[in-house]
Design goal:
- The chain is an alpha/beta fold.
- The chain folds into 2 domains: 14-47 and 147-461, TIM Barrel; 49-146, uronate isomerase, domain 2, chain A (Orthogonal Bundle).
- The chain has helices at 14-27, 41-46, 53-58, 62-70, 88-97, 106-119, 130-141, 148-154, 171-178, 192-195, 202-213, 220-236, 256-268, 273-294, 310-316, 335-341, 358-367, 385-399, 417-437, 443-461; strands at 32-34, 157-161, 185-186, 241-244, 297-300, 304-305, 324-325, 349-351, 373-375.
- A 4-stranded parallel β-sheet has the order 4-5-8-9, with helices on one face. A 3-stranded parallel β-sheet has the order 1-2-3. Strands 6-7 form a two-stranded antiparallel sheet.
- α6 packs across α19 (417-437), α11 (202-213) packs across α12 and α17 (358-367) crosses α18 (385-399).
- It is globular and about 70 Å long.
Length: 464
Amino acid sequence: MTLLHEDRLFPADPDTRSIAKRLYESIAGLPIISPHGHTQAGWFAHNEPFPDPAKLFVQPDHYIYRMLYSQGISLDELEIGVPELKNPRKVWRLFAQNYYLFRGTPTRIWLDYAFQELFDLKDRLSAENADSYYDAILEKLRTPQFLPRALYDRFHLEVLATTDSPLDSLADHLAIQQSNWKARILPTFRPDSVVDPEFMGFRKNIEILSELTGEDTASWSGYLRALEKRREHFKLLGCTATDHGHPTVRTADLSEHEAEKLYGAVFAGVATPDQQELFRAQMLTEMAGMSARDGFVMQIHPGSARNHNKLVYERYGRDTGADIPTATEYVHALRPLLNKYGNSPGFKMILFTLDESTYSRELAPLAGHYPCLVLGPPWWFHDSPEGMLRFREYTTETAGFYNTAGFNDDTRAFLSIPARHDVARRMDAGYLARLVVEHRLEEDDACEIARDLTYNLAKKAYKL
């Protein structure tokens, strides 16, 4: 028995499937470009063993524990938010008992891939084999082949980007670069904590920003200079991109006087909700201007009502599985930014969405016109086989393949990276095979496109 069929995710039609298999075989061995994710640089700086299966699989992966929580399993039972698990085997058993909940989800595909391909486990995880699974995984985690750096090499990673606060010293990134290990692990500048007035501890974060840079962040000009200095620090350590997780993609182009006055209200903590949203809008445009000057690719990940569950947020903190997609408007919201920087040769921006209704109506037409715009891959709730297929069907006819950014895995779960990229490669091979069968593409064209979607477009979009 195996957990994974060799033809998984390929089209059911035999002729189309045979072409898909050939296309997939041509790209299956390509290196992984992982230009956006949430793994920890410290794993690779210190290169210490992962402690146990629960810490490795369950605790960092909100895809797993949000499903379990939805079925009434408390996050306390799963020890979410606990630095050191008190009873990891108990957590694992609880996960295994409820593994059936993941039937039909991409999470199940990613997990089965890791279990089979990395740990050589061929029987489906269940309550009955939970302990034997745990022991088999733990045994391998204690070997040199399963240290973080060894897994990086095993996964055939060429580039791995993390996501980092402007307040991060990036000491782990520096340690990696100063070691003899020649991997490319790069930081990404994520300024939400110092540009979003609603971010917990915002005022304190601004004060820390001042301490780090020696700039007076009580003034608008000093605040902007401080952000520019942190970007310079990130660039020295290999950063090529920024990332912005705003609730909307609204942008603004205020006069210097208007912006200074607005910042005064934000800094003083007296800004109204409308002023807070306007400030975020202005900061997207300010960040675009900085990107036009320093060359960082600007990623915008809008449209999530984050920390929707107040009780979970207050007890367990940010990003614990209670984030819900919202409707997002792009055409009018981006216009101030695009009017100012949309035609600048040095500016590049990658747009993401959690609102699939915008694919063909807004995003594909925008990317199909503005030279600065590229469409990011299906993200978060849509990082799934059907989500990938919908993305291709709704965007390709207007934006083509070459106004997209390839694939990124956007994961906190390190072991899911090869599985996620494998899913994307199989789905793209199947989509391209259908175009070949319908005589809309020749197979040699499809083969070239498959390679670009897998490897070349991500390198180009992220300037890697």
